[in-house]
Every structure is written in structure tokens, then in C-alpha cells.
Design brief:
The protein has one domain (8-105). 80% of the residues lie in helices and 0% in strands. It has two helices and no strands. It has helices spanning 7-53, 58-108. Helix 1 runs antiparallel to helix 2.
């Protein structure tokens, strides 16, 4: 018995979709990271310069380095969140294409059923 659709065509559609999603998001993530890392590095250099020149005391140094640490943590957490969003987009594309192919084949066969697209797995 022949398959109701060509798996190769579905596979190509999935790969095309994932390539676009991941490529676009990675480009955006790199641009964001480039901007943020420049700012973090400048902040670090200013702290070092102020410490070397004696323009800040130990308390100020602690304040500024804590601020830098918090900024670095926020940057890292933002990258994680952006990555999770990319994974979710990839998941949604994957299951939409797969379940779409199944449901289209079932509909073409004249059957009055369809399979619901699954939600994203728990993070």
C-alpha cells in the first residue's frame, strides 16, 4: 500500500522551516549579544580605570562590580529566554508540519477525523 504523502517532501518542508527559524533567531541573538557584550566590557573597563586611578574606594568598587555582575546575569538570563523561545518556535513548526501532513492525508481519504496538534513539551 502506498503512503498517503511523500515523507521526503515533509522532511524537506520541516528542514526549510527550521533553517529559517533558527537562522533568523541566531542572527538576532548574535546581534543582541554583540551590543550587550560591548556595553558590559566598557562597564568593566571603566571600573578598572576608576580603581587604578583611585577615583573609587572599596565601597564604590563593590557597588559597581555588583552592578556589573547583575548586568551580566541579566544578559545571560535573556539569552536563555531567547533560546527557549527559538526552541518553542522550532517545536511549533515541526509539529504543525507533521500533524498537518497527517490531517491532510486523512481529510483527503474522506475521513471525518483529525488529530490535534500537540502543545509544547514542559520546559
Amino acid at each position: 500500500m502506498a503512503l498517503p504523502f511523500k515523507p521526503e517532501a515533509v522532511s524537506k518542508k520541516i528542514l526549510s522551516s527550521l533553517t529559517k527559524i533558527i537562522g533568523d533567531d541566531v542572527r538576532d541573538h548574535v546581534q543582541f549579544a554583540e551590543e550587550q557584550t560591548k556595553l558590559l566590557a566598557k562597564q568593566a573597563a571603566l571600573i578598572a580605570q576608576a580603581a587604578i586611578s583611585g577615583d573609587i574606594d572599596a565601597d564604590d568598587r563593590d557597588f559597581f562590580t555588583e552592578s556589573l555582575r547583575a548586568s551580566a546575569e541579566n544578559f545571560a538570563r535573556t539569552l536563555v529566554a531567547l533560546t527557549i523561545l527559538t526552541i518553542e518556535k522550532a517545536w511549533n513548526a515541526l509539529v504543525s508540519i507533521l500533524w498537518g501532513a497527517i490531517n491532510k492525508a486523512i481529510e483527503s481519504a474522506g475521513l471525518p477525523i483529525s488529530f490535534p496538534i500537540p502543545g509544547a513539551p514542559a520546559a
